[in-house]
Amino acid sequence: MAAEKMAIRPPVSEEELERAAKFLVRFYRVNEEFDPLYTMVDDPEPVARQLIQRYAEEENSVLLVAVSEGCVVGLIHGEVRHNPILRASPLGVMMELYVHPSYRRRGVAKRLIEEAAKKLREKGAKAIAAEFPHLNEIAVSFYRDLGFRPLTSVYIKELEEKVER
Questions:
Q1: 130: helix, coil or strand?
Q2: What are the two backbone dihedrals, phi and then psi, of residue 20, each rounded to the nearest 5 degrees?
Q3: Selecting from 3.40.630.30, 3.30.470.20, 2.40.10.10, 2.60.40.2250, what CATH number does the domain 3-145 have?
Q4: Using the 8-state DSSP alphabet, how is residue 123 labeled?
Q5: For 101, how many CA atoms within 13 A lie in the half-sphere containing its CB?
Q6: Rounded distance between C-alpha atoms, residue 78 and residue 92, angstroms
Q7: Between 80 and 153, the higher pLDDT residue
Q8: Using alpha carbons only, how large is the chain's radius of gyration in Å?
Q9: Which sequence spans correspond to the domains of the chain?
Q10: What is the DSSP track for 45-87?
Q11: Rounded to two decimals, what is the model's pTM?
Q12: Confidence of residue 122 (pLDDT cuts 50, 70, 90)
């Protein structure tokens, strides 16, 4: 099915919220392949459901699904971040994007990003950014093809667990 016949919109039912939560878990499972710090907690589904509900309710958040023939086939979540010292503030940041494998390479992700960008702009964003694992070369290429460029680098170091005595 062509992406043009697909609806991009906020989830409108409990069933769509559930499917979005399952996609959130799939998003993180894929990202585990790029970096073990993306490893999820045991039994991530209830946590994902809480997150999806929060994303749907928060004022600074955008949660959209791609729906084809009544079935959720994609998800995007972004938020507005404020940094008053920057002219590009507020910044719209897309942090979670997942499209079911059978719907990839059909323009679904691009449409999700375009619609999320519109919604983030409506919330005041002056620019948009995308966050994803550094080693995900597919994402790097995808976002570059859409006109994104690197802005910041985030480096991470795991802390040793504190031993109680």
A1: strand
A2: -60, -40
A3: 3.40.630.30
A4: T
A5: 2
A6: 7
A7: 80
A8: 17
A9: 3-145
A10: HHHHHHHHHHHHH-TTEEEEEEEETTEEEEEEEEEEE--TTST
A11: 0.88
A12: very high
